[in-house]
Amino acid sequence: MNIKNVVALLLILAIIAASAIIGIYGFEAGNFKIGSIQDTMKLGLDLKGGVFVVLEAETNASGDELDKIMSQTKEVIERRVNSLGLTEPNIVREGEKRIRIELPGAKNATEAIEVIGKTAQLQFIKPTGEVVLTGEQVKNAEVVFEQKRSNIPSVSLEFNSEGAKAFQEATKELAAETNAQDKIIAIVLDNVPISTPVVQNEIPNGRAVITGNFTLDEASQLAALIRGGALPVNLAEVQTSAIGPTLGIDSLNKSVSAGAIGILLVFIFMIAYYRLPGFIAALALILYTTIVLWVMVAFNATLTLPGIAGLILTIGMAVDANVIIFERIKEEIRNGKSLRASVDSGFSRALTTILDSNITTVIAAIVLFQFGSGPIKGFAVTLMIGIFASMFTAVVVTKLLLKIFISFSAFKNTKLYGA
């Protein structure tokens, strides 16, 4: 018996067992702690409970103008949602004029929608509390780069005639102050300061530049927030639903139970029909499941009911890959080849078929992710992760385990391979 193969087999089995046990129970040693998958997995609205709403912009704009308006609206909504203190909100554009907001943990749907959908209030306020102008007087806000400061990004503001006059009077007054704190014009969105620039000089032409040590992302976000106050768009409620946590947990438990029963039945069939290769496939599928779940945890992906469906679907695809491989191996054994030659030939001949089927599924998953929304994206993400994990376990892990087993004299009987 080859000692190296024994050590390799025990190591692989230990990795599979450890990944599954840590996934179920977690691991803690001193200050080092790994939470279980159940505790660390980010759950979607349909599992955790909460509120989701789809809002549609009431505007006749189109093309780039519409895209700009929707981006501004999304920025403002994200700010409002963050102010609610909810964990893991999901805000995505849906189609051209719609925005889907998912609020896991929210209990009052009406209150959440009122906070999200109200018109943004943008104000420029002097240190005395006097409002200089509002978002209605702001024509535009965009990112510019200062050549005098090594192309550091800043935010350029443009006011209409009424705003230009009010801003000129305010900047003339504040520029004469000696204390820096008395020179500030605070830019406030929904009663929350988003920028506090200091006035250096009187600005008479209705154009101002907010300078600072901005990163490009910070400058872009500030410009978008200011534009959002300047260009509010009415939002009509298209769809709303509140999901109770009890319903979510019940759905999760039923889905997990159904998945566990399905996997168990697959294990029984594979072992009964393919014998030793079927047992190896069962081990590889355990590893596959833990890989998918741990990857989702690592990438902070959200698990939804469609995502669970995608996971179970890819388990079936992983089994399908094993079935193709094992049938090829059986054919090679019946043709009189040795076990090792049959395994090599079986994997080689099955690989093209497996690649073709998985590539077409990946293409479908990419299309679903690109054009889908909400739960559809969750399904697509789980499907793509599962496809790559199934390819790895079916083609690499299963082949490695088979080669290790056939190196032992106790497992050279072709009857053990269903031939």
Beta-strand portion reads 15-25%
The largest pleated sheet is described as: 4 strands, antiparallel
Give the proportion of residues in helices. 55-70%
Low-confidence stretches: none
N/C terminus separation: 24 Å
Gross morphology:
elongated
How many distinct folded domains? 3
- The secondary-structure element order is HEEHEHEHEEHEEEEHEEEHEHHEHHH
* The top level CATH class name of the largest domain: Mainly Alpha
The CATH topology of the largest domain corresponds to: Multidrug efflux transporter AcrB transmembrane fold
Specify Rg, calculated over alpha carbons. Answer: 30 Å
Task: Give a verbal description of the structure.
It is a single chain. The chain has 419 residues and is of the alpha+beta class. It has 3 domains: 50-119 and 234-242, 2-Layer Sandwich (Alpha-Beta Plaits), CATH 3.30.70.3400; 122-230, Gyrase A, domain 2, CATH 3.30.1360.200; 244-417, Multidrug efflux transporter AcrB transmembrane domain (Multidrug efflux transporter AcrB transmembrane fold). It has 12 helices and 15 strands. The strands form 5 sheets. The chain has a 4-stranded antiparallel β-sheet with strand order 5-6-4-14. A hairpin with a 3-residue loop joins β5 and β6 (98-104). The protein is elongated. The mean pLDDT is 81.
